[in-house]
Amino acid sequence: MPPARFFPLDLCQIFFNMKEAIEKVIQQEAEAIQNIPVTDEFVKAVDLIYERVHQKKGKLVASGMGKAGQIALNIATTFSSTGTPSVFLHPSDSQHGDLGVIQENDILLLISNSGKTREILELVELADMLHPGLPLIVISGNPESILAKNANAFISTGNPPEVCPLGLSPTTSTTVMTVIGDALVVSLMNKIGFTSEEYAKRHHGGYLGDKSRLQARLLQETQNRIKK
To answer: Which CATH architecture group holds 30-194?
Structure first.
């Protein structure tokens, strides 16, 4: 039997301090999610997306810079896979020709924690020159920003402090942005009555493709039994 291993007291202390730090990060981010201000602006945003995409046959164009841009990309791809056509437009690339992806019936979803991101403000100006009057949905922690004040629907993150020990790196803010995006996606799925069958048409590969087709088949079999 191998001899028991004992860790020096200072290493044990580091281990427990690390666990406490991890628990604190999770707790603070969970609290930030619970403190997201749920206002009528969420409903307004969902209605705007429904009108522009599902009634006027436009699309959702999501954009953000840096970490916020990665969240915007995730939101766009999740919308597309759940029945609401969406694309991600990098704000810098928009100044080098990619702005042309925007069409007259589209709607912009812009993410900026500060509400003052230069590239996003420039994107708004350029998009308005191309197609005046495009509606804007803004997700930000700054309700007093120019971006927020120009929004047709402004969704506040609640501006939670970052859990980053420097208070600088986007951590809590991006967690909250992701959850807000999920809330919008799920609300649209409910509004359009998105089904497993429709999901399977858009997601052919992998585990989720198999699962969605199975769910659709089981639902169809249940409906057939009820009809009999």
So the answer is: 3-Layer(aba) Sandwich (3.40)
